[in-house]
């Protein structure tokens, strides 16, 4: 038993040591430390790593997985999973570019893209939450159907951006004041919003409760199915936003965009300390997980190692992180 | 809405019962849980609901809580017919239930759990965390429970979790408060505090349903008692018209000695289990012996370490120090593989997660531990397996349409018999049974008791972990009492009294 | 009071191993065959049937392992990446040693080592198998390019290497024979042996199995290795079929295999499933594929249709089980 809460004083400020200890015990602290070690290591090994240009570049690249990771993290916390996010991120590029080409309006394109994401999320959510089909199966099915749909529509070719809107290019490639990439900005804003949601809105707490113990949540009067349904919708919408950014970076709707993206995001979410069993983890942790993987990839690239080493190290780090986490839990 | 509203305000309507359940029926796969049961709750009264395990109390409460849907009957709340289709409906009607199983989110703090049903929010819709902490603290202060609102529920001992559970039912306005065995792990002091709370609730005009099988508690707190047996309504009587004996008579419906047949003679001298200085995370320096042909009963309150002991001595949970000897051979290495080879097996308290393979048929469930006996060069000799299993099904009178029936479709009592048969087919020297009659109806109970007696008569050492006093006193040859991971006392069947045992368990 | 609620159908159920959900699959398969043959008569030609069977063989070989793995309560997502890598290893070793036998052995063993790695990570380090094998997939996808930058050609043009996939035994192609062999052995193991019984037991309730003196971890490890070996075997056949070791082969193969197994009624939760179901699942998916081709539909439907079929089949199974529980 780590503490005897009934004895420790309810009132009165905690001592600094106690506060620090509580901080260190948190999972996010270990992640933050890992990230710091990683950054220090790569700035020592490569001169061009710790430059503003490179750091902002990494943040820009990381933002795609970050945005999708927030949604998936939220869904996994609610006790479900979505492996169709890669296909969806690829698919939203089609309505985006097609509508833009037809109307010349970026806004309408984005609306179309988000509408598609909304529909996919609602279908996934309906099948998994309301009909009760295992979410891995449902979203595995969606993965196939959406990717197949992309191929059907495009005939396995990219759809080019014919109108060449400057705003479309800027969305994924521009920088605020020439410094902060817009995608990073989008990711940051969403991160703050969703951390607030998870901590300070009843809906966020319901997500934790539903994932942590659905029976207890039901007894507390929650509509478990509804909560899960909305978690699916949010996850898809965020995957859609991620896909819009991706499409802008690619400058077109590419039929193979987002292939394997779901695995990358799942890895970051789990690395960030979100338990696949549901109810445990934080979106801040997810963000750190994404950053660790992104800086790792970038740093390894700078070491002039073959890019494939990134995949290999990422895989090993995921296994190590989850194994360590499990060890810690058992020691408790 | 103010916190602990239930303690401050209520709206009793004169002359109208707080709630009426009429002719309630409920059927589950394998059991008719309730048949034509009625219950009327008066505002400001404490209504005790009694009955053996499996009598239908929990089912009735879960119908009231909206967890289960009734198959027949009507429910009226404050005179108006109510359709309780989900826990949310029940909560809206002001029905608050303290469940027997802890229904808290273990990752959340105590304060957050208290307000799980409805988070207080500020004007912008954000959760008002300060208010939650403040009001939770105030609530605990008013009740007198000593719990830190900022503690994580998962870190608390079971008894404190139970107090949180009770406090939660009082945080919001309530018309009916139901408590399902709320004192199972509380100390006498905490029970006294709880009774104070219940009296205050009643004084405010709230109808309280109190479920317990502790007779003394019933006589102390209740106004009226309703007794259920095998899913049927037996009696509803003012508590002062009852005596201990009449209440037991109603609950059991037969004389208690019939429940515990005894065919076995005196235990043999041969020591089959010897445990010396056993310590784990939860157990402290436990030593005891069990002999062939005896039933050694272990009693303890929730969290005393009975289940931990059971799992440690069969090799399932790791141990820190100590020696376990089965029929002269040390249990080393400390695994279930060694344990089974030496002849010790555990009938777990948790049938679903540690015993049954729910999706698989009776055949596979029965032969699991002894499959190698029917194997030739790695192939299962299914005809031989079938006939052996069939022999046990007949001998134990296991009711199943066939050996291919999925075990999840059998009743609790028959499932338990299958699990017993699993071990007996193996041929054990020692069987550890942990809460052998949990969730089993009375008829099947006495059959399980008879089987346990038969096992001891055949020369097995039976180690029985139980929290049921009648079971303990009725079956054991010797009784060991546990508290906080230690054995506090051991006594023979003749010396044992309920008081002695309880005192040793609270120590 | 009746103690048993659900005697209905119990007599008609000779054993759980011929689950009646398979009737639905058989009907579905028949309907597909009839439908397609009405629209395109060449469906029943010997060539086409053999083509379908050949298509089935790779998925069935790995699916046999995956079925056992899912029944034991675990999953392996690295089979696609492992398939490509072991194909490259087999080709490469064949080139270097000049011996097709050694090459084949190396390919199969490589798959086994991957399975061993997965098994150890899952059973010893206690990493959830979904995550562990996603990680392995990444390692293998990266690793195969570090191993070979481009496709490994059959340098010495050894005919024996291509024979593995193009050879015939009588009228039947070798891969089909191999797949049938794997299927029969796996079927016997699951159906008639103690190991098979323990695989079900461990997946249905690992704790109960451990309390009964079994070792769930060892058993799971074995099944991971078997799945790995079978993946190696399939990788070898694939390399032989293409006459090269192709590092990019097998992308998405894991999903096809899992789809077939799930379609066959094997539960993701463990303890439930049959090889016969997997066979039907593979056949259905491949007949659909074939139908799309011979009906000259857009081949991209080959991704869409299975996606719908998996979800639909799972839902029907769910409905059936709910009806059962009543």
- Show unreliable segments of chain C: 1-18
* Number of helical segments with 4 or more residues of chain B: 18
Sequence stretches where pLDDT stays below 50 over 5 or more residues of chain B:
1-10
Number of domains of chain C: 1
Radius of gyration of chain C: 20 Å
The CATH architecture of chain C comes to Orthogonal Bundle
Class based on secondary structure composition and strand pairing of chain C: mainly alpha
Helix content of chain C: over 70%
Q: What is the rounded Rg of chain B?
A: 24 Å
CATH class of chain C equals: Mainly Alpha
User: Largest sheet of chain C, order of strands side by side?
Assistant: 1-4
Oligomer: heterotrimer
Separation of the first and last Cα atoms of chain C: 17 Å
Mean pLDDT of chain B: 86
If you had to describe this structure to a student in words, what would you say it looks like?
The complex is a heterotrimer of chains A (332), B (507) and C (326). The termini of chain A are close together. Chain A is globular, with a radius of gyration of 21 Å. In chain A, helix 3 packs antiparallel against helix 12, helix 3 (52-77) crosses helix 13 (261-271) and helix 13 (261-271) packs parallel to helix 15 (308-331). Helix content of chain A is 73%, strand content 2%. With 332 residues, chain A is an all-alpha fold. In chain A, strand 2 (175-176) and strand 3 form a beta hairpin. Chain B is α/β, with parallel strands linked by helices and 507 residues long. Helix content of chain B is 33%, strand content 24%. Chain B has helices spanning 57-64, 87-92, 110-114, 129-143, 158-170, 188-203, 215-221, 244-252, 256-259, 306-313, 336-342, 351-354, 362-367, 382-395, 412-426, 442-457, 469-475, 498-506, and strands at residues 19-28, 31-41, 46-50, 72-77, 80-81, 95-98, 176-180, 207-211, 224-229, 232-238, 271-279, 286-291, 295-300, 321-326, 329-330, 344-347, 375-376, 379-380, 430-434, 461-466, 478-483, 486-492. In chain B, the strands form 5 sheets. Chain B has a 6-stranded mixed β-sheet with strand order 6-7-8-3-9-10, sandwiched between helices. Chain B has a 6-stranded mixed β-sheet with strand order 16-19-20-13-21-22, with helices on both faces. A 4-stranded antiparallel β-sheet of chain B has the order 2-1-4-5, with helices on one face. In chain B, strand 4 (72-77) and strand 5 form a beta hairpin. Chain B is globular and about 70 Å long. Residues 1-10 of chain B have low confidence and may be disordered. Chain C is mainly alpha-helical. Chain C has one domain (16-325): ABC transporter involved in vitamin B12 uptake, BtuC. Chain C starts with 20 loop residues before the first helix and ends with a helix. Chains in contact: A-B, A-C, B-C. Chains A and B meet through helix 10 and helix 11 of A and helix 2 of B.
